[in-house]
Amino acid sequence: MKKYKCTICDWIYDEALGAPAEGIEPNTKWEDVPE
């Protein structure tokens, strides 16, 4: 799984962890994250 970092706010999205606080389940690929 990959990690992505926002160049504006330095937020890191880890596909393995997802973002449960934002409703994004673990193992969700970046391209499947809603805008």
Give an overview in words:
The chain starts with a strand and ends in a 21-residue tail after the last strand. A hairpin with a 6-residue loop joins strand 1 and strand 2 (12-14). The protein has no helices and two strands. It is globular and about 25 Å long. It has a two-stranded antiparallel sheet. It has one domain: Single Sheet (Rubrerythrin, domain 2), CATH 2.20.28. With 35 residues, the protein is mainly beta. Helix content is 0%, strand content 17%.
Question: In short, what is this structure?
Answer:
The chain has strands at 3-5, 12-14. It is an all-beta fold.
Identify the notable features of this structure and list them briefly.
35 residues, Rubrerythrin, domain 2
CATH architecture: Single Sheet
Structural class: mainly beta
| CATH C-level category | Mainly Beta
- Strand order, largest beta sheet: 1-2
Q: Provide the helix percentage.
A: under 10%
Largest sheet: 2 strands, antiparallel
- By DSSP, the count of extended strands is 2
Low-confidence stretches: none
CATH topology: Rubrerythrin, domain 2
Number of domains: 1
**How far is it from the N-terminal to the C-terminal residue, by CA?**
20 Å
Approximate shape: globular
Strand percentage: 15-25%
Radius of gyration of CA atoms, rounded to a whole number = 9 Å
- Taking all residues together, what is the mean pLDDT? 96
Number of helices: 0
Task: Characterize the quaternary organization of these chains.
Answer: single chain
Report the order of strands and helices: EE
